[in-house]
Amino acid sequence: MAPTHVLRCCQRGLAWIPVIFIALVVCWSYYAYVVELCVLTIPSIGEKIVYLIFFHISFILFVWSYWQTIFTRPANPSKEFCLPKAEKERYEKEGRPESQQEILWRAATSLPLYTRTGAGAIRYCDRCQVIKPDRCHHCSACDMCVLKMDHHCPWVNNCVGFSNYKFFILFLAYSLVYCLFIAATVLQYFIKFWTLCRRKSAENCPKNELPDTHAKFHVLFLFFVAAMFCISILSLFSYHLWLVGKNRSTIEAFRAPVFRSGSDKNGFSLGYRKNMAQVFGDQKKYWLLPVFTSQGDGLTFPARLVNPADVEQAAVTLQPEPGKSAADVPESPVSESQNRLLSNDQHANDIGDHQANNTLKPAESEAITISMEGES
Protein backbone atom coordinates (compact mmCIF):
# COMPACT_ATOMS: atom_id res chain seq x y z
CA MET A 1 0.00 0.00 0.00
CA ALA A 2 1.25 3.47 -0.85
CA PRO A 3 2.48 5.64 2.01
CA THR A 4 -0.05 7.95 3.65
CA HIS A 5 1.72 11.12 2.52
CA VAL A 6 1.61 9.95 -1.13
CA LEU A 7 -2.14 9.42 -0.93
CA ARG A 8 -2.57 12.82 0.69
CA CYS A 9 -0.57 14.47 -2.11
CA CYS A 10 -2.76 12.75 -4.68
CA GLN A 11 -5.87 13.97 -2.88
CA ARG A 12 -4.57 17.52 -2.82
CA GLY A 13 -3.76 17.35 -6.53
CA LEU A 14 -7.19 16.01 -7.46
CA ALA A 15 -8.84 18.70 -5.35
CA TRP A 16 -7.60 21.33 -7.83
CA ILE A 17 -9.50 19.77 -10.75
CA PRO A 18 -12.71 21.81 -10.20
CA VAL A 19 -10.67 25.03 -9.93
CA ILE A 20 -8.76 24.21 -13.12
CA PHE A 21 -12.04 23.47 -14.87
CA ILE A 22 -13.48 26.87 -13.86
CA ALA A 23 -10.24 28.59 -14.92
CA LEU A 24 -10.36 26.95 -18.37
CA VAL A 25 -14.01 27.92 -18.85
CA VAL A 26 -13.23 31.52 -17.87
CA CYS A 27 -10.24 31.71 -20.22
CA TRP A 28 -12.29 30.33 -23.10
CA SER A 29 -15.15 32.75 -22.34
CA TYR A 30 -12.66 35.64 -22.46
CA TYR A 31 -11.37 34.53 -25.86
CA ALA A 32 -14.85 33.85 -27.25
CA TYR A 33 -16.24 37.20 -26.14
CA VAL A 34 -13.29 39.49 -26.88
CA VAL A 35 -11.94 37.90 -30.06
CA GLU A 36 -14.74 35.93 -31.68
CA LEU A 37 -17.61 38.28 -30.77
CA CYS A 38 -16.22 41.80 -30.35
CA VAL A 39 -13.31 41.69 -32.80
CA LEU A 40 -14.58 39.35 -35.54
CA THR A 41 -18.37 39.59 -35.34
CA ILE A 42 -19.68 42.97 -34.12
CA PRO A 43 -19.53 45.46 -37.01
CA SER A 44 -20.04 48.68 -35.00
CA ILE A 45 -16.87 50.21 -33.51
CA GLY A 46 -18.82 52.09 -30.83
CA GLU A 47 -20.62 48.94 -29.74
CA LYS A 48 -17.31 47.08 -29.55
CA ILE A 49 -15.76 49.72 -27.29
CA VAL A 50 -18.72 49.88 -24.90
CA TYR A 51 -18.97 46.11 -24.65
CA LEU A 52 -15.23 45.69 -24.08
CA ILE A 53 -15.10 48.33 -21.33
CA PHE A 54 -17.93 46.88 -19.26
CA PHE A 55 -16.81 43.32 -19.96
CA HIS A 56 -13.31 43.94 -18.61
CA ILE A 57 -14.63 45.69 -15.49
CA SER A 58 -16.82 42.72 -14.59
CA PHE A 59 -14.07 40.29 -15.60
CA ILE A 60 -11.44 41.92 -13.34
CA LEU A 61 -13.76 42.08 -10.32
CA PHE A 62 -14.81 38.47 -10.88
CA VAL A 63 -11.24 37.14 -11.18
CA TRP A 64 -10.06 39.27 -8.25
CA SER A 65 -12.74 38.00 -5.88
CA TYR A 66 -12.28 34.42 -7.08
CA TRP A 67 -8.53 34.64 -6.47
CA GLN A 68 -9.08 36.03 -2.97
CA THR A 69 -11.54 33.26 -2.12
CA ILE A 70 -9.13 30.55 -3.27
CA PHE A 71 -5.87 31.80 -1.80
CA THR A 72 -7.00 33.42 1.47
CA ARG A 73 -6.00 30.96 4.17
CA PRO A 74 -8.83 30.01 6.56
CA ALA A 75 -8.47 31.64 9.99
CA ASN A 76 -7.65 29.24 12.83
CA PRO A 77 -8.06 29.48 16.62
CA SER A 78 -5.32 31.46 18.32
CA LYS A 79 -2.79 29.97 20.73
CA GLU A 80 -4.83 30.99 23.78
CA PHE A 81 -7.35 28.28 22.85
CA CYS A 82 -4.69 25.56 22.95
CA LEU A 83 -4.34 23.57 26.15
CA PRO A 84 -1.14 24.21 28.10
CA LYS A 85 1.40 21.44 27.75
CA ALA A 86 0.83 20.05 31.22
CA GLU A 87 -2.96 20.13 30.85
CA LYS A 88 -2.73 18.50 27.43
CA GLU A 89 -0.69 15.62 28.83
CA ARG A 90 -3.19 15.15 31.65
CA TYR A 91 -6.08 15.25 29.17
CA GLU A 92 -4.50 12.57 26.98
CA LYS A 93 -3.76 10.31 29.96
CA GLU A 94 -7.29 10.57 31.37
CA GLY A 95 -9.59 7.80 30.26
CA ARG A 96 -12.84 9.10 31.74
CA PRO A 97 -14.79 11.75 29.81
CA GLU A 98 -15.80 13.39 33.09
CA SER A 99 -12.19 13.94 34.11
CA GLN A 100 -11.33 15.24 30.65
CA GLN A 101 -14.17 17.75 30.89
CA GLU A 102 -12.88 18.96 34.26
CA ILE A 103 -9.56 19.74 32.62
CA LEU A 104 -11.27 21.58 29.77
CA TRP A 105 -13.47 23.60 32.13
CA ARG A 106 -10.45 24.81 34.07
CA ALA A 107 -8.58 25.68 30.88
CA ALA A 108 -11.59 27.59 29.50
CA THR A 109 -12.00 29.79 32.57
CA SER A 110 -10.39 32.84 30.98
CA LEU A 111 -11.57 32.24 27.42
CA PRO A 112 -14.42 34.21 25.79
CA LEU A 113 -16.68 31.20 25.25
CA TYR A 114 -20.47 31.27 25.05
CA THR A 115 -21.19 28.09 23.14
CA ARG A 116 -21.27 24.52 24.40
CA THR A 117 -22.18 21.13 23.07
CA GLY A 118 -25.74 19.90 23.30
CA ALA A 119 -24.85 18.20 26.59
CA GLY A 120 -23.37 21.41 28.02
CA ALA A 121 -19.74 20.34 27.65
CA ILE A 122 -16.78 22.36 26.39
CA ARG A 123 -16.33 22.07 22.63
CA TYR A 124 -12.91 20.52 22.08
CA CYS A 125 -11.24 19.27 18.88
CA ASP A 126 -9.19 16.15 19.51
CA ARG A 127 -7.69 16.41 16.02
CA CYS A 128 -6.35 19.97 16.38
CA GLN A 129 -6.12 19.77 20.19
CA VAL A 130 -7.76 23.16 20.72
CA ILE A 131 -10.82 24.38 22.56
CA LYS A 132 -13.17 25.52 19.81
CA PRO A 133 -14.14 29.21 19.83
CA ASP A 134 -17.75 30.14 19.20
CA ARG A 135 -18.98 29.20 15.69
CA CYS A 136 -15.71 27.37 14.98
CA HIS A 137 -15.81 23.90 13.40
CA HIS A 138 -13.31 21.34 12.19
CA CYS A 139 -13.07 20.91 8.41
CA SER A 140 -12.15 17.35 7.49
CA ALA A 141 -11.12 18.38 3.96
CA CYS A 142 -8.72 21.09 5.17
CA ASP A 143 -7.89 19.07 8.31
CA MET A 144 -8.06 22.12 10.55
CA CYS A 145 -10.44 24.06 12.78
CA VAL A 146 -11.84 27.07 10.89
CA LEU A 147 -13.21 30.20 12.56
CA LYS A 148 -16.87 30.82 11.76
CA MET A 149 -16.81 27.98 9.28
CA ASP A 150 -19.52 28.12 6.64
CA HIS A 151 -18.66 25.17 4.38
CA HIS A 152 -15.86 23.64 2.34
CA CYS A 153 -16.26 24.60 -1.31
CA PRO A 154 -14.69 22.27 -3.91
CA TRP A 155 -15.02 24.96 -6.61
CA VAL A 156 -12.48 27.13 -4.79
CA ASN A 157 -10.61 24.23 -3.14
CA ASN A 158 -10.77 26.09 0.14
CA CYS A 159 -12.78 26.29 3.30
CA VAL A 160 -15.14 29.28 3.40
CA GLY A 161 -15.11 30.91 6.81
CA PHE A 162 -14.45 34.12 8.70
CA SER A 163 -11.34 35.11 6.74
CA ASN A 164 -12.81 34.79 3.22
CA TYR A 165 -16.61 34.75 3.53
CA LYS A 166 -16.89 38.29 2.14
CA PHE A 167 -14.71 37.27 -0.81
CA PHE A 168 -16.93 34.25 -1.42
CA ILE A 169 -20.08 36.40 -1.47
CA LEU A 170 -18.45 38.85 -3.89
CA PHE A 171 -17.23 35.95 -6.03
CA LEU A 172 -20.83 34.75 -6.39
CA ALA A 173 -22.05 38.30 -7.06
CA TYR A 174 -19.48 39.16 -9.72
CA SER A 175 -19.69 35.76 -11.40
CA LEU A 176 -23.43 36.34 -11.68
CA VAL A 177 -22.86 39.83 -13.11
CA TYR A 178 -20.25 38.43 -15.50
CA CYS A 179 -22.59 35.73 -16.81
CA LEU A 180 -25.59 38.05 -17.02
CA PHE A 181 -23.61 40.64 -18.98
CA ILE A 182 -22.37 38.02 -21.43
CA ALA A 183 -25.82 36.50 -21.89
CA ALA A 184 -27.50 39.88 -22.39
CA THR A 185 -24.99 41.23 -24.92
CA VAL A 186 -24.59 37.96 -26.82
CA LEU A 187 -28.33 37.32 -27.13
CA GLN A 188 -28.93 39.31 -30.33
CA TYR A 189 -25.99 37.65 -32.10
CA PHE A 190 -27.02 34.27 -30.75
CA ILE A 191 -30.42 34.77 -32.43
CA LYS A 192 -28.82 35.85 -35.71
CA PHE A 193 -26.38 32.95 -35.78
CA TRP A 194 -29.10 30.51 -34.76
CA THR A 195 -31.27 31.77 -37.62
CA LEU A 196 -28.30 31.52 -39.99
CA CYS A 197 -27.65 27.91 -38.96
CA ARG A 198 -31.24 27.01 -39.78
CA ARG A 199 -31.08 28.33 -43.34
CA LYS A 200 -31.14 25.64 -45.97
CA SER A 201 -29.48 27.60 -48.75
CA ALA A 202 -27.45 30.79 -49.06
CA GLU A 203 -29.99 32.50 -51.32
CA ASN A 204 -32.58 32.39 -48.54
CA CYS A 205 -30.34 34.38 -46.18
CA PRO A 206 -31.16 38.08 -45.88
CA LYS A 207 -28.30 40.39 -46.82
CA ASN A 208 -28.05 41.84 -43.32
CA GLU A 209 -27.39 38.43 -41.72
CA LEU A 210 -23.98 37.67 -40.23
CA PRO A 211 -21.56 35.57 -42.29
CA ASP A 212 -21.46 31.86 -41.69
CA THR A 213 -18.03 31.55 -40.01
CA HIS A 214 -16.54 29.52 -37.18
CA ALA A 215 -17.31 32.42 -34.78
CA LYS A 216 -20.93 31.30 -34.67
CA PHE A 217 -20.05 28.16 -32.72
CA HIS A 218 -18.25 30.19 -30.04
CA VAL A 219 -21.14 32.65 -29.79
CA LEU A 220 -23.81 29.96 -29.63
CA PHE A 221 -21.96 27.96 -27.00
CA LEU A 222 -21.05 31.10 -25.05
CA PHE A 223 -24.70 32.01 -24.60
CA PHE A 224 -25.66 28.52 -23.46
CA VAL A 225 -22.81 28.36 -20.93
CA ALA A 226 -23.52 31.86 -19.56
CA ALA A 227 -27.24 31.15 -19.20
CA MET A 228 -26.58 27.82 -17.48
CA PHE A 229 -24.18 29.35 -14.95
CA CYS A 230 -26.58 32.25 -14.33
CA ILE A 231 -29.32 29.90 -13.17
CA SER A 232 -27.09 27.88 -10.85
CA ILE A 233 -25.23 30.86 -9.37
CA LEU A 234 -28.39 32.90 -8.82
CA SER A 235 -29.89 30.33 -6.47
CA LEU A 236 -26.65 29.95 -4.48
CA PHE A 237 -26.08 33.70 -4.28
CA SER A 238 -29.66 34.33 -3.11
CA TYR A 239 -29.29 31.69 -0.40
CA HIS A 240 -26.07 33.17 0.96
CA LEU A 241 -27.51 36.69 0.93
CA TRP A 242 -30.33 35.33 3.06
CA LEU A 243 -27.77 33.77 5.42
CA VAL A 244 -25.91 37.08 5.73
CA GLY A 245 -29.15 38.89 6.55
CA LYS A 246 -29.89 36.34 9.29
CA ASN A 247 -26.26 36.19 10.49
CA ARG A 248 -26.07 32.43 10.10
CA SER A 249 -23.54 30.12 8.56
CA THR A 250 -24.58 27.20 6.41
CA ILE A 251 -23.82 24.88 9.33
CA GLU A 252 -25.99 26.96 11.68
CA ALA A 253 -28.82 27.01 9.14
CA PHE A 254 -29.02 23.21 9.38
CA ARG A 255 -28.15 22.96 13.10
CA ALA A 256 -29.46 25.84 15.18
CA PRO A 257 -27.49 27.01 18.24
CA VAL A 258 -28.99 26.11 21.62
CA PHE A 259 -29.29 28.87 24.21
CA ARG A 260 -30.00 28.68 27.94
CA SER A 261 -33.67 29.21 27.20
CA GLY A 262 -33.63 26.65 24.39
CA SER A 263 -32.82 26.36 20.72
CA ASP A 264 -32.79 29.65 18.82
CA LYS A 265 -31.78 29.80 15.18
CA ASN A 266 -31.57 33.61 15.37
CA GLY A 267 -29.24 33.62 18.35
CA PHE A 268 -26.46 35.56 16.61
CA SER A 269 -28.76 37.86 14.64
CA LEU A 270 -28.45 41.55 15.57
CA GLY A 271 -30.74 42.95 12.90
CA TYR A 272 -30.22 43.14 9.15
CA ARG A 273 -28.01 46.23 9.14
CA LYS A 274 -25.60 44.97 11.80
CA ASN A 275 -25.59 41.49 10.31
CA MET A 276 -24.46 42.96 7.00
CA ALA A 277 -21.83 45.05 8.78
CA GLN A 278 -20.34 41.96 10.43
CA VAL A 279 -19.49 40.51 7.02
CA PHE A 280 -18.87 43.62 4.88
CA GLY A 281 -17.67 46.13 7.48
CA ASP A 282 -18.68 49.62 8.58
CA GLN A 283 -17.56 51.56 5.51
CA LYS A 284 -19.89 50.95 2.59
CA LYS A 285 -17.36 52.27 0.06
CA TYR A 286 -15.38 49.04 0.54
CA TRP A 287 -18.32 46.65 0.39
CA LEU A 288 -17.96 45.93 -3.33
CA LEU A 289 -14.17 45.53 -3.29
CA PRO A 290 -12.55 42.12 -2.58
CA VAL A 291 -10.55 43.46 0.39
CA PHE A 292 -11.00 42.22 3.94
CA THR A 293 -13.28 44.53 5.95
CA SER A 294 -15.25 42.09 8.12
CA GLN A 295 -15.75 43.11 11.75
CA GLY A 296 -14.33 41.29 14.73
CA ASP A 297 -11.56 38.79 15.16
CA GLY A 298 -13.48 35.59 14.36
CA LEU A 299 -13.04 34.36 17.94
CA THR A 300 -15.94 36.11 19.67
CA PHE A 301 -19.33 37.21 18.34
CA PRO A 302 -22.08 39.32 19.91
CA ALA A 303 -25.31 37.45 20.59
CA ARG A 304 -28.74 38.92 21.03
CA LEU A 305 -30.59 38.67 24.35
CA VAL A 306 -32.97 35.76 24.32
CA ASN A 307 -35.56 37.04 26.79
CA PRO A 308 -36.11 39.86 29.35
CA ALA A 309 -34.82 37.64 32.15
CA ASP A 310 -31.37 37.80 30.56
CA VAL A 311 -31.36 41.58 31.02
CA GLU A 312 -32.47 41.58 34.63
CA GLN A 313 -30.30 38.69 35.78
CA ALA A 314 -26.95 40.31 35.12
CA ALA A 315 -25.26 38.31 37.84
CA VAL A 316 -26.19 34.96 36.31
CA THR A 317 -23.17 33.15 34.85
CA LEU A 318 -22.78 30.19 32.58
CA GLN A 319 -24.40 27.10 34.03
CA PRO A 320 -21.81 24.67 35.43
CA GLU A 321 -21.87 20.98 34.87
CA PRO A 322 -23.38 18.79 37.63
CA GLY A 323 -21.02 18.57 40.58
CA LYS A 324 -19.13 21.79 39.72
CA SER A 325 -19.03 25.05 41.63
CA ALA A 326 -19.56 28.46 40.09
CA ALA A 327 -15.84 29.11 40.41
CA ASP A 328 -15.17 26.39 37.86
CA VAL A 329 -17.35 28.05 35.25
CA PRO A 330 -15.52 30.24 32.72
CA GLU A 331 -16.40 33.89 32.49
CA SER A 332 -17.11 35.38 29.10
CA PRO A 333 -15.33 38.68 28.51
CA VAL A 334 -16.75 40.82 25.75
CA SER A 335 -14.50 41.87 22.91
CA GLU A 336 -14.32 45.41 21.54
CA SER A 337 -15.94 44.26 18.31
CA GLN A 338 -18.98 43.05 20.25
CA ASN A 339 -19.39 46.33 22.11
CA ARG A 340 -18.97 48.28 18.88
CA LEU A 341 -21.64 46.27 17.12
CA LEU A 342 -24.11 46.57 19.97
CA SER A 343 -23.49 50.20 20.97
CA ASN A 344 -25.00 52.13 18.06
CA ASP A 345 -28.69 51.43 18.47
CA GLN A 346 -30.88 48.68 19.87
CA HIS A 347 -31.31 45.84 17.42
CA ALA A 348 -34.65 44.56 16.23
CA ASN A 349 -34.64 41.53 18.45
CA ASP A 350 -34.40 43.37 21.81
CA ILE A 351 -37.51 43.03 23.95
CA GLY A 352 -39.20 45.89 25.83
CA ASP A 353 -39.34 49.62 25.28
CA HIS A 354 -36.92 50.30 28.17
CA GLN A 355 -34.11 48.70 26.11
CA ALA A 356 -34.44 51.03 23.15
CA ASN A 357 -31.44 53.29 23.86
CA ASN A 358 -29.31 51.02 26.03
CA THR A 359 -26.19 49.17 24.98
CA LEU A 360 -25.23 45.72 26.05
CA LYS A 361 -22.96 45.93 29.08
CA PRO A 362 -20.25 43.39 29.84
CA ALA A 363 -22.16 42.14 32.87
CA GLU A 364 -25.19 41.59 30.71
CA SER A 365 -23.15 39.80 28.11
CA GLU A 366 -21.88 37.43 30.76
CA ALA A 367 -25.51 36.58 31.49
CA ILE A 368 -25.96 35.10 28.06
CA THR A 369 -25.69 31.34 28.00
CA ILE A 370 -25.29 29.70 24.66
CA SER A 371 -25.04 26.04 23.90
CA MET A 372 -24.82 24.24 20.61
CA GLU A 373 -25.66 20.70 19.72
CA GLY A 374 -22.75 18.25 19.79
CA GLU A 375 -20.83 17.82 16.59
CA SER A 376 -20.50 14.49 14.95
**Major sheet description:** 3 strands, antiparallel
Q: Work out the number of β strands.
A: 9
Number of helices: 12
Level of helix content? 40-55%
Q: What is the quaternary state of this protein? A: single chain
- Please give the alpha-carbon distance between the first and last residues: 29 Å
Q: Class by helix and strand content?
A: mainly alpha
Order of helices and strands: HHHHHEEEEEEHHHEEHHHHE
Instruction: Tell me the overall shape.
Output: elongated
pLDDT below 50 for ≥5 consecutive residues: which ranges? Answer: 306-376
β-sheet strand percentage: 5-15%
Identify the strand order in the major beta sheet: 8-7-9
* pLDDT averaged over residues: 79
Q: From the alpha carbons, calculate the radius of gyration and give it in angstroms.
A: 27 Å
How would you summarize the topology of this molecule?
Elements: H1 4-14, H2 17-39, H3 45-71, H4 85-93, H5 97-107, E1 124-125, E2 130-131, E3 137-139, E4 144-146, E5 151-153, E6 158-160, H6 165-197, H7 215-246, H8 250-254, E7 258-259, E8 262-263, H9 272-280, H10 308-312, H11 336-342, H12 362-365, E9 370-371
Antiparallel strand pairs: 1-2, 3-4, 5-6, 7-8, 7-9
Helix pairs in contact: 2-3, 2-7, 3-6, 4-5, 6-7
Could you describe the 3D structure shown?
- With about 375 residues, this protein is mainly alpha-helical.
- About 45% of the residues lie in helices and about 5% in strands.
- The strands form 4 sheets. It has a 3-stranded antiparallel β-sheet, with no helix packed on it.
- Helix 2 (about 15-40) packs across helix 7, helix 4 packs antiparallel against helix 5 and helix 6 packs antiparallel against helix 7 (about 215-245).
- The longest helix is centred in the middle third of the chain and has 33 residues, at about 165-195.
